[in-house]
């Protein structure tokens, strides 16, 4: 820096200091020699004044020592400045000393310590320590448990956002339906399985995956963050920690216990196994050893408990579970160890006097605790004795397998014996049991039930009368022997209620019948019904006696209307359309009807985006605006059906419109790359970085972008890296002007290749220590002392010695043409 310029600056500074209130003799920019600390941003324009020290006689000049690195200088008159941009990553703190000297060069004041704190700017890209990582994961590993790390470094200050790294998985290959099997901790780079990954990864289906992970600085939260990518290959290994097949254990086993029944194995040796009882049984008859072998510890009893479910866990030496517990299913296999049992100490049947030969008396069913539908529980019946044997033995027979009792020889007479006691032998495969059956001979059923009245009149009910309501009591009487099947009455509705809306429950002590609503009444389908009851006995009538009109009764049921709201056929109507359907397309329809048959008018509510309309008459739904999946992937509105006329009752249902993605968002540059520049003249080939992105659903985004130069003529001067957006010069021989660059983004998807062409510009401009001209105020952060002066200085220098004003920085050219080619896989 030539003295002339500095002098000019000093004059300017002086005038600034003097004209500004608050900056006195010992103000922010100047003062006597004392220990001081100056924070200065790295990478600043050079030749910046830091402070003006004032000398007190006899001091006439100053001397600077310490870690100056030939950057910091002091003028004899006390002006402290620096001549090159600072680099925090080279030295974060410069410890300087300044002494005041007299005319003979002897120290008269100081030296005092002057500390320069170099503040960080984001001038370093994060870099993965490896460009390729390899790892492996066991199938079914716990979600969120890291199985490998990727690691990047950034030379910037980790205490500032500049050095704070943010990891992301950009691509997972293969990727079916956009389901991510892997996740990365955005701070630590730890890679683990997602819940789906834990459940679905299967080395048989797919033994390896490839991820592209990115790391960004600025905590990933800034448009201006730098990034790097790395490739991660992951091998999926089979999991032998699997639930064993369900085990069958024979009950009542006489083998010595404990008895090994199955086993589990952790993927590596050294696991600690234990069992957990899901049902908290008082006695838990299983155990596991440290090999993972599972034992039953005592004989089981299927009739007490026929299956067991419990868990096997594997833990590490600190008692932390290594994986999900496995469910062990044990089924207890039946043996025939239970004799048949009688249903009750004595089973009672009735038979009428005079009933004919072969008449069915009843069915006897004994029980067997052993497993149903096996040979162990198939029962056989046999009558072994009859008391009394009057008029003779063998009056009854029983069907061998069904247990059905019949009259074997003749009708019975109460005078002969009113009661018979039978002993029945019931046998299964191995056991025999005796049961007792008592047969009572009862009076003949020669009386029919007679209704107290044949017409119970008219009954008017609103249609919303509750189910369960008793609406009528009916009564018939029967003069046969009380409390037998000859006098017991069952009421049946034989006419007027095909829908089964009514039922009759009988009180067997009084033979009273209670008519009850079993299903909702409906004015619209059955406003008037004529109901007919029949009263019957469970025992058949003796021949010659028949039910006559006295055993029937009727009543008229009149149901009155209650106005009901319209009814939708579904609670939720679903439809699916492509997001790019033309405005006016029918996207779905809904249907409702009014129980009273009134006309219905449809309308929509909740159409917050104004995308849909409904035809009030037909319920058809149409789009009225362009739809956008990226705004709503499932658009939910409510449909309302209103009665036209009447009381305008209304009801509501839901309409869910699923929008399927179409690739309607072209990729774009991730941000505005105005101001990409390289310093002219180039000393070594240089490069600029850019990034592309796409707003569509991931399946359309394709595996990745690849980049290529947009035209062949560019290839003489430039090259672009295929994967990263890095544009490099091929030589150093460029003019000081703006170069328009076109870049192809190629997107490979399963079905097609898309090529997009983008344009932006790179400016070659004369630089001031690595910085192109930038207007005042574009620096980040609050200006510090050093920085404020720096801006002033740079501006002056630019005006004085350089002319960058003709080097405007255009952004992306607005009218750059965009080409899209789509080709099939053949031409690929
Ligand atoms: C990442 O690398 C840095 C520097 O080598 C090291 O200090 C840090 O421990 C590493 N982190 C992990 C998770 O390996
Ligand atoms: C980073 O991960 C944490 C959880 O690990 C999450 O809460 C946070 O939202 C993530 N940050 C971003 C920007 O995604
Ligand atoms: C085991 O079987 C024998 C007959 O084989 C039987 O006496 C015993 O009660 C059975 N034990 C259990 C627990 O079922
Ligand atoms: C039948 O057995 C019952 C006891 O269960 C007894 O009271 C009754 O007198 C017996 N009847 C005849 C006819 O043996
Ligand atoms: C019962 O209703 C019927 C038909 O509605 C009617 O003809 C009859 O007169 C009514 N009887 C009584 C007693 O109200
Ligand atoms: C039905 O039969 C009974 C006798 O069993 C008789 O008393 C009654 O009058 C009969 N009813 C009709 C309507 O015939
Ligand atoms: C839509 O309308 C058609 C006839 O136009 C009908 O068959 C279909 O059931 C309706 N769909 C719904 C959900 O109402």
UniProtKB/TrEMBL annotation:
It is found in: Cell membrane. This is Cadherin-17. Residues 60-128, 129-246, 273-342, 343-451, 453-568, 569-669 form the Cadherin domain. It comes from Sciurus vulgaris. One of its GO terms (biological process) is spleen development. Coiled coil: none annotated. One of its GO terms (molecular function) is beta-catenin binding. The gene is CDH17. GO terms for cellular component: adherens junction; basolateral plasma membrane; catenin complex; cell surface; nucleoplasm. Gene3D superfamilies: Cadherins (2.60.40.60). Keywords: Calcium, Cell adhesion, Cell membrane, Glycoprotein, Membrane, Metal-binding, Repeat, Signal, Transmembrane, Transmembrane helix. Residues 1-22 form the signal peptide. It is a single-pass type I membrane protein. Cadherins are calcium-dependent cell adhesion proteins. They preferentially interact with themselves in a homophilic manner in connecting cells; cadherins may thus contribute to the sorting of heterogeneous cell types. LI-cadherin may have a role in the morphological organization of liver and intestine. Its main location: membrane. PANTHER family: CADHERIN-17, CADHERIN-23. Pfam families: Cadherin (PF00028). InterPro entries: Cadherin (IPR039808), Cadherin-like_dom (IPR002126), Cadherin-like_sf (IPR015919), Cadherin_CS (IPR020894).
């Amino acid at each position: 820096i030539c003295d002339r310029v500095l002098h000019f600056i000093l004059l300017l500074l002086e005038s600034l200091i003097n004209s500004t209130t608050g900056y006195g003799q010992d103000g922010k920019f100047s003062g006597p020699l004392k220990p001081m600390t100056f924070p200065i941003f790295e990478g600043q324009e050079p030749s910046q004044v830091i402070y003006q020290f004032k000398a007190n006689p006899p001091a006439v000049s100053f001397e600077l020592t310490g870690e100056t690195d030939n950057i910091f200088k002091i003028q004899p008159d006390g002006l402290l400045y620096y001549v090159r941009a600072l680099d925090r990553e080279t030295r974060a703190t410069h410890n300087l000393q300044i002494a005041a000297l007299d005319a003979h060069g002897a120290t008269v004041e100081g030296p005092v310590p002057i500390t320069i704190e170099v503040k960080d700017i984001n001038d370093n890209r994060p870099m993965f320590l490896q460009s390729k990582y390899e790892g492996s994961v066991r199938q079914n590993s716990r979600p969120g448990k890291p199985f490998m790390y990727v690691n990047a470094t950034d030379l910037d200050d980790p205490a500032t956002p500049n050095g704070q790294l943010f990891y992301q998985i950009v691509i997972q290959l293969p990727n079916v339906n956009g389901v991510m099997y892997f996740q990365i901790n955005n701070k630590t780079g730890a890679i683990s399985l997602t819940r789906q990954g834990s459940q679905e990864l299967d080395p048989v289906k797919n033994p390896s995956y490839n991820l592209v992970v990115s790391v960004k600085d600025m905590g990933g939260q800034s448009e201006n963050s730098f990034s790097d990518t790395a490739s991660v290959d992951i091998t999926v290994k089979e999991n032998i920690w699997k639930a064993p097949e369900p085990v069958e254990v024979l009950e009542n086993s006489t083998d010595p216990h404990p008895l090994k029944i199955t086993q589990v194995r952790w993927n590596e040796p050294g696991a600690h196994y234990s069992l957990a009882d899901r049902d908290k049984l008082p006695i838990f008859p299983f155990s596991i050893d440290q090999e993972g072998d599972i034992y039953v510890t005592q004989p089981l009893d299927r009739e007490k408990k026929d299956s067991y479910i419990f868990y096997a866990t594997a833990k590490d030496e600190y008692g932390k579970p290594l994986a999900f517990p496995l469910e062990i299913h044990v089924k207890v296999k039946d043996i025939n160890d239970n004799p048949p049992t009688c249903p009750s100490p004595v089973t009672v049947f009735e038979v009428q006097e005079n009933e004919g030969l072969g008449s069915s008396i009843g069915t006897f069913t004994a029980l067997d605790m052993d497993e149903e539908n096996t040979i162990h529980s198939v029962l056989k019946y046999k009558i072994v004795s009859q008391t009394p044997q009057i008029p003779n033995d063998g009056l009854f027979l029983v069907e061998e397998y069904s247990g059905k009792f019949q009259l074997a020889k003749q009708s019975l007479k109460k005078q002969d014996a009113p009661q018979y006691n039978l002993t029945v032998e019931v046998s299964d495969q191995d056991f025999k049991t005796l049961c007792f059956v008592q047969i009572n001979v009862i009076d003949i059923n020669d009386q029919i039930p007679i209704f107290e009245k044949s017409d119970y009149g008219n009954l008017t009910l609103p249609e919303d009368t509750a189910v369960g309501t008793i609406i009528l009591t009916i009564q018939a009487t029967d003069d046969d022997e009380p409390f037998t099947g000859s006098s017991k009455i069952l009421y049946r509705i034989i006419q007027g209620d095909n829908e089964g809306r009514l039922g009759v429950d009988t009180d067997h002590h009084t033979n009273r019948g209670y008519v009850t609503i079993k299903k909702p009444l409906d004015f619209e389908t059955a406003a008037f019904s004529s109901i007919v009851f029949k009263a019957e006995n469970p025992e058949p009538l003796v021949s010659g006696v028949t039910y006559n009109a006295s055993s029937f009764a009727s009543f008229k049921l009149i149901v009155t209307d209650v106005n009901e709201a319209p009814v939708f056929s579904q609670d939720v109507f679903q439809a699916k359309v492509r997001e790019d359907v033309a405005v006016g397309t029918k996207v779905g329809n809904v249907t409702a009807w009014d129980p009273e048959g009134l006309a219905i008018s449809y309308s929509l509510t909740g159409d917050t985006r104004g995308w849909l309309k409904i035809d009030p008459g037909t319920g058809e739904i149409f789009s009225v605006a362009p739809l956008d999946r990226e705004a709503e992937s499932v658009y939910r509105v409510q449909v309302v059906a209103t009665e036209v006329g009447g009381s305008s009752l209304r009801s509501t249902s839901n309409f869910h419109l699923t929008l399927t993605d179409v690739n309607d968002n072209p990729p774009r540059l991730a941000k505005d790359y105005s101001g990409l520049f390289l310093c002219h003249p180039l000393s070594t080939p240089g490069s600029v970085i850019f990034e592309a992105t796409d707003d569509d659903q991931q399946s359309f985004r394709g595996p990745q972008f690849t980049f290529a130069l947009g035209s062949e003529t560019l290839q003489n001067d430039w090259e672009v890296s295929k994967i990263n957006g890095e544009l490099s010069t091929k030589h150093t021989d460029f003019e000081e002007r703006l170069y328009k660059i076109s870049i192809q983004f190629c997107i490979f998807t399963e079905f097609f290749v898309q090529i997009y062409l983008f344009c932006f510009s790179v400016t070659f401009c004369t630089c001031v220590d690595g910085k192109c001209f930038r207007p005042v105020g574009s620096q980040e952060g609050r200006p510090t002392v050093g920085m404020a002066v720096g801006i002033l200085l740079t501006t002056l220098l630019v005006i004085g010695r350089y002319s960058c004003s003709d080097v405007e920085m255009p952004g992306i050219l607005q009218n750059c043409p965009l080409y899209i080619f789509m080709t099939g896989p053949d031409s690929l």
